[in-house]
């Protein structure tokens, strides 16, 4: 897929294209998640009117998503600040 051991222009173009587009794809998926799932609720995927015995969806799951994002950000921050070379390639130090 990447073109063997030699890193040429085509390989770098593919690599930078994927790394440029990936955050936008993730943001689009998050927006779709927030728009469709948080609007109607997980217990009402069709969006029909069923207000009887329905637990309020928005506050709990929005805070849960926010806490998950903060936890992920804290883990990534601790990883990069405490041991920045942990996920690096050992061949870079030869």
TrEMBL record:
It is a multi-pass membrane protein. GO terms for molecular function: metal ion binding; oxidoreductase activity; quinol-cytochrome-c reductase activity. GO terms for biological process: mitochondrial electron transport, ubiquinol to cytochrome c. It comes from the Eukaryota. Residues 47-94 form the Cytochrome b/b6 C-terminal region profile domain. Residues 1-46 form the Cytochrome b/b6 N-terminal region profile domain. InterPro entries: Cyt_b/b6_C (IPR005798), Cyt_b/b6_N (IPR005797), Cytb/b6-like_sf (IPR027387), Di-haem_cyt_TM (IPR016174). The main subunits of complex b-c1 are: cytochrome b, cytochrome c1 and the Rieske protein. This is Cytochrome b. It comes from Exocelina sp. MB3321. The gene is Cytb.
